[in-house]
Amino acid sequence: MKRKSRILTVLLVVGLAIFSTSCSNKLKPLDQNNFNVTPSPIETVGNKIPVTINGTFPEKWFHKNAIVTITPVLKYGNNQEVMGTPYSFQGEKISGNRVTVPQSRGANVTMNSTFDYVPEMLSSELYLRFDGRVKNKRSNLPDLKVADGVVATSALADAKTTAPSVAPDGFQRIIEDVQEASIMFIIEQANLRDSELNKGDVTEWKRRVEEAFNDPKQNLNVEVSAYASPDGGFSYNERLAAQRERNTSRYLEGEMSKRNIDTEVYAHYTAQDWEGFRQLVSASNLQDKELILRVLEMYPDTETREREIKNISYVFEDLAETILPQLRRSRLIANIEIIGKSDEEIMTAWNNNPKELTVEELLYASTLTNDETVKERIYQYATANFSSDYRGWNNIGTMFFKQGDYAKAAQSFDRAAQVNSSAPEVNMNKALLAILENDLVKANELLGRSAGADGLDSAMGLLSLLQGNYNQAVNAYGNSVSNNAGLAHLLIRDYNKAKQTLDAVENPDATTAYLLAIIASRTNNFNDVMANLRTAIGRDRGIATRALNDLEFAKYRTNQDFMSILR
Predict the structure, then answer these.
(1) What average pLDDT score do residues 337-366 get?
(2) Are 219 and 337 a contacting pair, CB within 8 Å?
(3) I need a surface site. Which of 77, 225, 342, 466 has the fewest CB within 10 A?
(4) What is the pLDDT of residue 314?
(5) Number of helices followed by number of strands (H, E) in the chain
(6) What's the confidence (pLDDT) of residue 231?
């Protein structure tokens, strides 16, 4: 009997040892209190959801032969989930590159992860998924919930409401034109020579003046500006330049009388043409021209200038042969204003005979109508008849973009880029399409080539919003008014400016009212929450579902009035 008792005792001890060993090879589930998530609640930054999870492995919890991998998992929708970055840890007896956790004192750990936001994640939960093994034996560790929901206000940034860039027309109602000719004189003389009066440029000048005078669409005035070269005394040169002006003016008056041109001649003269001298020397290949230019700067007195330049005798010989003869002249200047078609004439031509219109007039015509159908027809005509001008392709692409036909918009912008790949408007518009495809790297590159495009600030503001750079977005938007601009101010918690911006939106939509409701919620104005939500839901019934799941309004979910407008 004693022998049997001893055997039973030995078996019991062995069994307890085996049982104890078996139990020690298992990891116990951790508690939610072991983990802290920031931000809380989790929140979108742009169109991403970054989370930081600080955790604690308690003393004695981590087995020396254990390997534990923790993966953040965001669960949402109908049994959908997306996994974040896994982190692996190991016990003291395990070799490898994982983070080692001492069994005796445990450890504090930090895990960072980022999820791409989709609208269904508005109602979601963040879990930690454990893969724990001790000596290759898996421990049964259930998923641990560590956070509720996502505040997705930043995800309300919308590329679709950002206006694409329309390439401008170059139409000018009045075009300034100048026709010039010069009558040259022999040194110290003021008489007009036939060889000068019959030159080609003088003959062409008179023809152009006559044409402008006889055209009711052109306005004309004439100037005579006579000069003497700065190589004589001032008094002498003044008399000489004045005589050259008088002789030239009398000649022009006679020529215009023959052609029945009735316009005044505005005449003046310059005794010593130092400015013309400076310009000719600067543009010349003269030896030591820098020395001459320094003399001009050093001596404002004209007589001293002349004396010092003549003292440089080897230089003055070149000046006397090449520069000074060009300054003994009378300039004939015809200032002509070419008056273009009126708005009415342009639209009449568009409706009756668009072939009369230049490409600039066509593109200008598109600004004279608010009828989107007419605009589109104008751009279509421009692409068909001026296919080598990128603006027609770009601008019809903006029409497709606003209509929501992004495939056609992309085709049009690509065609515009084939014509002019450096056009800022085209690059900005292609950037908006890249943003719609969530390719922010490409969008950033394209916007870098969009300097000068109309609306670039709004596109840059949108990109900054989506990248989570809210202060940059505010700076980009400046004082512009849009949902996105209001959202930027909201996200930096400047609620007064955000409300002011949204209240000024010209054509408010459901998102405008919804953003105002969020501002009211954050500033504890329940009446404005209700009023703005009613407006938003009236414009888009789908807003009610979002509001029901939006943590921005979580504190009102027990309020019957609030819940009644969402159902």
Answers:
(1) 95
(2) yes
(3) 342
(4) 63
(5) 23, 16
(6) 78
